[in-house]
């Protein structure tokens, strides 16, 4: 059953068309990653999903209703922007209690509901600390907690880990992964870090020039673009690394070979990776090895034909669009 349906939607800002016949469907319980270059249309799409904008053409349905119906959006859909601020003098528990009252969580369930969310987002031990003393990562998880109040059907996360340190990112990822495993909430996740989408999302959508350039299961998108793999080998002796690199260069299946000190790497077609490992392993003592397939970056290039420079901009919407003035 689809919880999000976007059908042939177009949206323009003056002479600039942000969305141009975009269509996508998301099944209930899916964690969907959305990525694209600057100006691809991601932020405009999110604004349509939460009812902040209306399409010029086409239809948008979220949780069985038009997002322009404010009541439905407040009850079923939650949006977590990149930055969410809270009164620094309040505690995390007090903020969640306030949101629970505002969203009409019954009084006899309210404390249990708040406590459960605190545990879900990993803030139970800091629940009674003032938010002004929270780290950026804790504030971001508190924001996610407020979005979970009232058990929404759809959760939209727009660049939720931007600016966090590695520990904050890891903690946020753990919460999102747990939600995906333990609940049937549908999560739409935008990120400029394609590896982040690859780790957290089951499905992905590549948005380019206001349209869906590619969509499907993350693994299918990645494998469809995986025409090469990288075989990385590490050795205890430099002589072994040098000999292995020479053997790889002589092997018909190796497309390119490089060596640095105790390491040798080769690219090959996926089916030939085992042949390379076998050929080197017969004559040289391999300390460690790794076979890496291309990530979603390869799928992005495949879908929109970008250069490396343009691909590095994926997921970064314009600041002007955040203010409502220009498309993204």
Automatic annotation (TrEMBL):
InterPro entries: AAA+_ATPase, ABC_transporter-like_ATP-bd, P-loop_NTPase. Residues 319-328 have a biased composition (Acidic residues). This is ABC transporter ATP-binding protein. Residues 4-234 form the ABC transporter domain. One of its GO terms (molecular function) is ATP hydrolysis activity. Belongs to the ABC transporter superfamily. Keywords: ATP-binding, Nucleotide-binding, Transport. It comes from the Archaea. The lineage of its organism: Archaea, Methanobacteriati, Methanobacteriota, Stenosarchaea group, Halobacteria. Residues 302-328 are annotated as: Disordered. SUPFAM superfamilies: P-loop containing nucleoside triphosphate hydrolases.
């Amino acid at each position: 059953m689809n919880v999000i349906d976007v059908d042939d939607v177009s949206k323009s800002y003056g002479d600039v068309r942000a969305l141009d016949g975009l269509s996508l469907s998301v099944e209930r319980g899916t964690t969907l990653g959305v990525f694209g270059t600057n100006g691809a249309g991601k932020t405009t799409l999110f604004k349509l999903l939460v009812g902040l904008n209306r399409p010029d053409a086409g239809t948008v349905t979220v949780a069985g209703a038009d997002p322009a119906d404010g009541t439905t959006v407040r009850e079923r859909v939650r949006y977590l922007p990149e930055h969410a601020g809270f009164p620094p003098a309040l505690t995390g528990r007090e903020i969640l209690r306030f949101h629970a009252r505002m969203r009409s969580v019954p009084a006899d369930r309210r404390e249990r509901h708040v406590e459960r969310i605190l545990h879900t987002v990993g803030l139970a031990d800091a629940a009674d600390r003032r938010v002004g003393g929270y780290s950026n990562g804790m504030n971001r998880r508190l924001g996610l907690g407020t979005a979970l109040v009232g058990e929404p059907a759809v959760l939209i996360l727009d660049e939720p880990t931007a600016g966090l340190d590695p520990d904050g990112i890891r903690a946020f990822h753990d919460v999102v992964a747990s939600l995906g495993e333990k609940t049937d909430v549908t999560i739409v996740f935008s990120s400029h870090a394609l590896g982040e989408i690859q780790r957290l999302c089951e499905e992905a959508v590549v948005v380019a020039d206001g349209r869906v350039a590619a969509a499907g299961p993350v693994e299918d998108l990645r494998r469809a673009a995986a025409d090469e793999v990288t075989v990385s080998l590490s050795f205890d002796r430099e002589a072994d690394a040098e000999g292995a690199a020479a053997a790889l260069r002589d092997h018909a299946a190796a497309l390119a070979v490089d060596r640095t000190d105790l390491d040798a790497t080769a690219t090959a077609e996926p089916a030939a990776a085992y042949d390379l490992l076998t050929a080197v392993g017969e004559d040289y003592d391999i300390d460690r090895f790794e076979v890496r397939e291309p990530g979603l970056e390869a799928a992005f290039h495949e879908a929109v034909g970008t250069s490396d420079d343009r691909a590095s901009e994926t997921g970064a919407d314009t600041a002007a669009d955040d203010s409502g003035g220009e498309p993204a």
